[in-house]
Design goal:
It is a single chain. The protein has six helices and eight strands; from the N terminus they run E-E-H-H-H-E-E-E-H-E-H-E-E-H. An eight-stranded mixed beta sheet has the order 1-2-3-4-5-6-8-7, sandwiched between helices. By secondary structure, it is α+β, with helices and mostly antiparallel strands.
């Protein structure tokens, strides 16, 4: 049984901190073809590589990784890089292969509510591969604005990404409409 969620919004879902029981599930999701296609590196992640990545993430106090779920159905992973007390954070997400339709929107709403709420972040950014136009459009629906392009060097070669930024003021201006569209009044717990 999972502990209390970090955030829960009725009708949208909840974010639960990952624990060791999630380790293999997260590896399986990271290796799903649709997830790999959106990552900076696209190779299949070995058990050893995942162990090393997992250990770095869960032991770093600036990295916060969550399982998103609604009504017991897992939606995917939300990751927020945020040194406690900082006013700026970065985030990323990926859906579980069998996540229900709309999982990305739910995870994004939960991440924004957590970042701009309990974490007290003033700006939140993310990077998306330039060819992933569907996710870029999703972020823009939530108010993220393009902030430029960057080329990341990876073991598989250079990868171009779009940088997107959202401020707490921009989120506040869209928040009620977005949450209402997702079927909620806007109260988070």
């Amino acid at each position: 049984m999972r502990p209390e969620p970090e955030i829960a919004i009725e009708g949208i879902g909840a974010l639960f901190r990952v624990d060791s029981a999630d380790r293999e599930t997260v590896r399986a999701w990271r290796n799903a073809p649709d997830v790999r296609a959106a990552m900076y590196t696209r190779h299949e992640i070995s058990a050893d590589e995942h162990e090393s990545w997992w250990d770095r993430h869960v032991s770093d106090p600036a990295r916060h990784m969550f399982i998103a779920a609604i009504d017991g159905v897992m939606l995917g992973v939300v990751s927020v890089s945020w040194p406690p007390g900082a006013k700026h954070a970065s985030w990323a997400f990926y859906a579980a292969p069998d996540a229900p339709r709309g999982a990305g929107r739910r995870m994004e709403a939960l991440a924004l509510e957590l970042a701009f709420g309990a974490m007290g972040v003033e700006t939140l950014d993310c990077e998306v591969r330039v060819e992933n136009v569907r996710v870029i459009a999703l972020h823009q629906m939530f108010g993220f604005a393009p902030a430029g392009e960057i080329t990341r060097e990876t073991p598989e070669g250079p990868v171009k990404a779009v940088q997107l930024v959202l401020t707490s003021q921009s989120w506040a201006a869209r928040r009620a409409g977005v949450l209402a569209e997702l079927g909620h009044s806007g109260e988070a717990s």
